């Protein structure tokens, strides 16, 4: 049911977007990610649920194999991310830069970036000047946009007593030096902030990974136990049928 809700929300969010803008940022669209995860989750849980209810060995094996693949992929991603941390950092930087380019094209993506910048107190990928990659915030003299050389309001230092957020607080910040801009906005990039947060919360992330891994391993184990029980029942039924056909039985 949860996976079906995820798919419905993702499809609804996707349909609400303008067609051209949606196609432009297809690779970084949160709605697409929600739909894909929802569909995969539904297929896996459907095999497990129906397979256990109907005692279908094929569906249970599919459920067990899919869970095993997901578990191994998670494990491989964690190990490779640790070993090739520089390449992983480069991939994250590429994703963030792509999101910056399409910031104004997708409202969901825009809200996600704003949330991340406010939560991590950062701006851009490496620095606040990365926002020049966006066509609206580009700092070249030929850019006709009113937001030229600006940064999103989520980069701004907010006063706790401020009742109304000034959405134009990032105006012209890219034209300032780091020292001048640091009085008004976060100048550090989100990549370094994210890396520092990961290093500071390794135990938390390890606990989350363990919390995700244990149900998967339990599901694989239970599926295999049920498969063996079904096979034993089939063998017992065949044995009884053969002996009932025996005239000396």
From TrEMBL:
<keyword id="KW-1003">Cell membrane</keyword>
<dbReference type="InterPro" id="IPR008952">
    <property type="entry name" value="Tetraspanin_EC2_sf"/>
</dbReference>
<keyword id="KW-1015">Disulfide bond</keyword>
<dbReference type="InterPro" id="IPR000301">
    <property type="entry name" value="Tetraspanin_animals"/>
</dbReference>
<dbReference type="GO" id="GO:0019899">
    <property type="term" value="F:enzyme binding"/>
</dbReference>
<comment type="similarity">
    <text>Belongs to the tetraspanin (TM4SF) family.</text>
</comment>
<keyword id="KW-1133">Transmembrane helix</keyword>
<dbReference type="InterPro" id="IPR018499">
    <property type="entry name" value="Tetraspanin/Peripherin"/>
</dbReference>
<protein>
    <recommendedName>
        <fullName>Tetraspanin</fullName>
    </recommendedName>
</protein>
<feature type="disulfide bond">
    <location>
        <begin position="123"/>
        <end position="139"/>
    </location>
</feature>
<dbReference type="GO" id="GO:0005737">
    <property type="term" value="C:cytoplasm"/>
</dbReference>
<feature type="transmembrane region" description="Helical">
    <location>
        <begin position="62"/>
        <end position="84"/>
    </location>
</feature>
<dbReference type="GO" id="GO:0046931">
    <property type="term" value="P:pore complex assembly"/>
</dbReference>
<feature type="transmembrane region" description="Helical">
    <location>
        <begin position="202"/>
        <end position="227"/>
    </location>
</feature>
<dbReference type="GO" id="GO:0005886">
    <property type="term" value="C:plasma membrane"/>
</dbReference>
<dbReference type="GO" id="GO:0051604">
    <property type="term" value="P:protein maturation"/>
</dbReference>
<keyword id="KW-0325">Glycoprotein</keyword>
<keyword id="KW-0472">Membrane</keyword>
<feature type="transmembrane region" description="Helical">
    <location>
        <begin position="31"/>
        <end position="50"/>
    </location>
</feature>
<dbReference type="GO" id="GO:0046930">
    <property type="term" value="C:pore complex"/>
</dbReference>
<keyword id="KW-0965">Cell junction</keyword>
<dbReference type="GO" id="GO:0072659">
    <property type="term" value="P:protein localization to plasma membrane"/>
</dbReference>
<dbReference type="GO" id="GO:0005912">
    <property type="term" value="C:adherens junction"/>
</dbReference>
<feature type="disulfide bond">
    <location>
        <begin position="122"/>
        <end position="155"/>
    </location>
</feature>
<keyword id="KW-0963">Cytoplasm</keyword>
<dbReference type="Pfam" id="PF00335">
    <property type="entry name" value="Tetraspanin"/>
</dbReference>
<keyword id="KW-0812">Transmembrane</keyword>
């Amino acid at each position: 049911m949860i996976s079906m809700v995820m798919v419905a929300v993702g499809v609804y969010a996707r349909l609400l977007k303008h067609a051209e803008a949606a196609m432009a940022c297809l690779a970084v669209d949160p709605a697409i990610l929600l739909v894909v995860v929802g569909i995969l989750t539904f297929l896996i849980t459907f095999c497990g649920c129906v397979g256990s209810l109907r005692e279908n060995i094929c569906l249970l094996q599919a459920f067990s194999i899919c869970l095993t693949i997901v578990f191994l992929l998670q494990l491989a991603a964690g190990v490779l991310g640790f070993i090739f941390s520089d390449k992983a950092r480069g991939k994250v930087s590429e994703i963030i830069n792509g999101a910056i380019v399409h910031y104004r094209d997708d409202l969901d993506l825009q809200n996600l970036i704003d949330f991340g910048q406010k939560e991590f107190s950062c701006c851009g990928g490496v620095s606040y000047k990365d926002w020049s990659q966006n066509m609206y915030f580009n700092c070249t003299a030929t850019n006709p946009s009113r937001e030229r050389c600006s940064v999103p309001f989520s980069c701004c230092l907010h006063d706790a007593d401020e009742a109304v957020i000034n959405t134009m607080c990032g105006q012209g910040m890219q034209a300032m030096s780091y020292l001048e801009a640091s009085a008004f906005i976060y100048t550090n990039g989100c990549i370094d902030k994210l890396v520092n947060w990961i290093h500071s919360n390794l135990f938390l992330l390890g606990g989350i990974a363990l919390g995700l891994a244990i149900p998967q391993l339990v599901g694989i184990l239970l599926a295999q136990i049920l498969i063996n029980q079904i096979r034993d029942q089939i063998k017992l039924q065949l044995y009884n049928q053969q002996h009932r056909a025996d005239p000396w039985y």
